[in-house]
């Protein structure tokens, strides 16, 4: 069976992109990255994509008059590369309902908290300031809200005495790098059944595109 084509949207460092590339390289994830799109010309993720010989395009918001025109350019680029699943990997802009509906059910995000706790920016700082004992990360489909779409996978990460937002972010990031490729793999195998906001993980062999 042919490999599912991923389109990755990223704004910064690109360690999650790296984790996805590593998982593909190691044979743990049967997928192919069709294109990486960044909104930030200085993003490290652009450098990483070039090093890995992955097609990369920068589509800056400021080049477009409206948000819809910018999002249309992104969606068109994803189409050109025949992306079947869109993976947000540290993409720091909110996508409008126009984009969400255009790519309905085909966009995943990773967020560094146990949603619905601490949505939005600086999730790790929110967790430290709230003095919770446990935070973590969540992979979810996007919907029209802020980090509110159907949850695919979550994993808890304990806070430790003296944690700063940075130390917590680092500990969560290690878990993200395992969780995201796993969630993408489940999608690629057709093992995610979405009913309303409930995502059921089908047994191996029950999926619609096993490979
Ligand atoms: C990751 O921690 C990711 O969960 C977070 O940004 C970081 C990106 O790191 N995303 C969000 O906060 C989205 N709301 P990376 O560029 O090294 O993958």
TrEMBL record:
Domain of life: Bacteria
Domain Formyl transferase N-terminal: 8-184
Positions of (6R)-10-formyltetrahydrofolate binding: 67, 92-95, 109
UniProtKB keywords: Purine biosynthesis, Transferase
EC number(s) on file: 2.1.2.2
Site feature location: Raises pKa of active site His: 147
Pathway membership: Purine metabolism; IMP biosynthesis via de novo pathway; N(2)-formyl-N(1)-(5-phospho-D-ribosyl)glycinamide from N(1)-(5-phospho-D-ribosyl)glycinamide (10-formyl THF route): step 1/1
Swiss-Prot/TrEMBL catalytic activity: N(1)-(5-phospho-beta-D-ribosyl)glycinamide + (6R)-10-formyltetrahydrofolate = N(2)-formyl-N(1)-(5-phospho-beta-D-ribosyl)glycinamide + (6S)-5,6,7,8-tetrahydrofolate + H(+)
NCBIfam families per the UniProt record, alphabetical: PurN (TIGR00639)
The protein's role, per its UniProt record: Catalyzes the transfer of a formyl group from 10-formyltetrahydrofolate to 5-phospho-ribosyl-glycinamide (GAR), producing 5-phospho-ribosyl-N-formylglycinamide (FGAR) and tetrahydrofolate.
Protein name: Phosphoribosylglycinamide formyltransferase
Species of origin: Propionispora vibrioides
Gene name of the encoded protein: purN
